[in-house]
Each structure stands twice: as structure tokens, then as C-alpha cells.
Amino acid sequence: MKIHLPNSAFLGNVDPLLRGFDPSNPETLEITTNDKWVSVHPFVLSLVASIGLTVKPENIKCEKIEARSKGYLARMNLFKMLNIAFSMDIVEHDPTGRFIPLTQIRSSEEASKFIPEMIPLLKVTPEQAETIVHILSELVRNVLEHSGSPGGAVVCAQYYPKTNRIGIGISDAGVGIKKTINFAHKTRTDMEAIQLALSPGVTGMTDKAGGTERNAGFGLFYIKSIASVNGDHFVIYSGNGFYKLLRKQSDSVRALRLNADPFRDRHSKEEFQAVFNGTAVGIDMTLKQTREFSVLIQAIGDVYRKAIKEKKKGRYKGPTFI
Amino acid sequence: MIIKLFDAVGKYAENKDTARDIRNKFLLPALEKKEKIFLDFEGVETTTQSFIHALISEAMKKHGNGIFDYVVFKSCNDSIKQFVKIVVDYMQEALG
């Protein structure tokens, strides 16, 4: 496999990086970077780390990294997580209030330990913490329950003071959304599976309204809705499908209008040649735009209830008269 | 019976395995015996829809909305109340 980290890859411009990902020869991984500078979203770091975890450390090559930001990749734990040698003197400043380095979560217990420990590091308000806890918990537990990823979930986050924004990335090298969704639904493509996974009330565990005792098909819809209401980016990449919720201009941000169908949101989507065996999610949270949590939940709940109603209506069979 | 959620989950009620354990060990047996049960969220700052779903949806499937004659949610903040309402509403919608 080969992946190139350009000088800039955030959620708005990450598409070329994914387009250039070469998944051939899955037993090796070559990571190359821009010569001068690398600045990437946590989505990219978690994706690279989850891919790297499927490869033996001795088969990972990244010795040609010359970029000055090599130190950043090291501080975000990329080399440590992939268990590859790294030689550079770096001053390790306290990450509090700035970033959460790449962290591997393989069990429910690790998730329960990680979430309360990481929230204080981001130095957010209690209301903002509520949203972050929800996003992280739903995403991490999705991976643990559905992905079948031997390496579990890889998570990291970064605070960007200039834009007052937190970027979160989570990735796994599991079976991908399509395989999971197709336990209970029939989708033909990764993009169709992504569309279903982002719709309210859809879970891979059952096609019944109300879900199972553990899953109701609310998590990804909720996370996409948070990004939508706040006007932030949200991306999801699985198999060869890539969906991006585009940022909204500030005027439309305030409107609490949510769509059950992610394709009705302002978005872009692409089906790449290369297939990523797993799922990666990235989200931005502009902190000053974050809506009051309980208002948000109420609005999201309304759409969810409506979707359940529609789903039931869709199943109603009328009598046949001849 | 009073179940103090904070003692089981801390300030973030998000572990669905813990929710399942509370449901199976306390909630469902109390409902079988038609005993009043208080789910006390004192000290819990936030929860997730998945946690509340794992906690009560199975009980609603088994006992319908009659569970609310016995189950009382105590000391919930606004967002926890919202999550409880969402789950209760969609489960009633789904079961109705």
C-alpha cells in the first residue's frame, strides 16, 4: 500500500489524498510526505494509523519523511503507534488544550477509560464536552460492535486556535460499512451503504423499527446532524465510497433544518478506484457555533421519530380487493 | 429501588455494556416483580442515545409503556431528559 501526505489535507481538501491511496500489496505500507511541510486533519492521521496497524512494522517504510512537521507526526504518536523507528529531538510540550494523540481503543473498557480522560485535555466548556462525548462514544462503540477490526478504533483530535475549531478523526481497518449494513439490508455499493448508515433508524443489526436491544441506528445520523446544524464538515470513507458534508455559510447555519437523507444535505461524494478495507470518519466542530446541546438533541429526535413513522408506514400493507 | 447511575458510570453515561447490566440485573427483575425503580442520574453530566436505548428499550419491548408506572427518572439534566424522551417516543412509535 502507498499513501502520500501532502502539505495540507483537511476535511475540505482531503479528496486528492484519498484518490491517490494505493491499496495494492496490503502486506507493505509506504508513507511519503510533502518535502517541506505536512499539515493534516486527525481524520488523515487516524486513517494512516489504522491502515498501518494491519502491516508488520518491518514492512512499513517512511524513512524519506523530510518535512519539518515530522515532529508533529511524532507528537501525534504516529510512529509510536506503528512501532517504527523515529529519530529526531523534539521538545514535548504539554498537549493539554491542543491535541489528543493517536490512541488505539480495542475494548468497551478502554473506551470508558479514554473518554473521561480525554475530555479535560481539550479544555472545552461542559456543553461542548457533551457533544464531544456523544460523538466519540457513538463512533468508538460503532467500531467495537460492528467493524470486526482486530486493531479496534484509532482516534485522535486537534484543537485549532485560529479557527476555534476541534477536528476529530476515527478510523478502523474492519469490514467496512457495506458488509455491516448488509446483515439486515441490501445495498449494492459502498456509497449506497454509506447513505443508509447516515439515515436515521437504520442499523445493520435489524431492519425492524426501534432496532435491537443495543442498536437503534441513530449514531451516525446524529453525528452528521451535529455537523450539519453547526455548519461544519463531516466526512465518511468506507470501501471505495467517500461522502463529505460540506460546510454551510454562516447565514444558513442557524436554521435547524435536518435531512433524514444525507444526499439531500449540501454534500459531495465520490467513488474511488481504490478500496479502503475499513471505515474512517472525520468531523470538525467550530466551537463558537456549537448549538445548545438539548436543543440539538430535540431537533435530531424529531427527524428520527418522523423517520420511524415513515418506516412503519412503508411496511403497511393494505387489503386487496378484486 | 434506587439505582444511582453515577456510581456505575461516572459523569458520562455512555457505556452500553453497563447499561445492559443495569437493565438485566435491576430494571427487568424489578419490572417482573412490579416494583418501583428510580433511575437516579444525580452527578451524571451527559449520556448518549445509545446508552438510554440499551437501558430501557428492551424493557419497553417486553412490558410496553406500562413500564412507566414503575420506572422513574430522577435528577436528569435537560439533555439527559431529551435523550430519554427521544428513546421513549421512538420505541412507542415502533411498538405501537
In short:
Chain A is α/β, with parallel strands linked by helices.
Low-confidence stretches of chain A: none
Total DSSP E strands of chain B:
5
Number of domain units of chain B = 1
How is the quaternary structure best described?
Answer: heterodimer
* Helix coverage percent of chain A: 25-40%
Shape of chain B: globular
Helix-strand pattern of chain A: EEHEEHEHHEHHEEHHHEHEH
Provide a count of the helices of chain A. 11
**Pair with the most extensive interface?**
A-B, 37 and 35 residues
- How would you state the average pLDDT of chain B, rounded? 94
| Beta strand % of chain B | 15-25%
Largest sheet of chain B: 3 strands, parallel
Report the sheet-strand fraction of chain A.
15-25%
Shape of chain A: globular
Chain-wise SSE layout:
The complex is a heterodimer of chains A (322) and B (96).
Chain A: E1 2-5, E2 8-9, H1 15-19, E3 29-33, E4 39-40, H2 42-52, E5 60-61, H3 70-75, H4 78-81, E6 99-105, H5 108-122, H6 126-147, E7 153-160, E8 165-172, H7 177-181, H8 190-197, H9 219-230, E9 234-245, H10 250-253, E10 267-286, H11 293-315
Parallel strand pairs in A: 1-3, 2-4, 3-5
Antiparallel strand pairs in A: 6-7, 7-8, 8-10, 9-10
Helix pairs in contact in A: 5-6, 6-9
Chain B: E1 2-4, H1 5-9, E2 12-13, H2 16-32, E3 37-40, E4 46-47, H3 49-63, E5 71-74, H4 78-95
Parallel strand pairs in B: 1-3, 2-4, 3-5
Helix pairs in contact in B: 2-3, 3-4
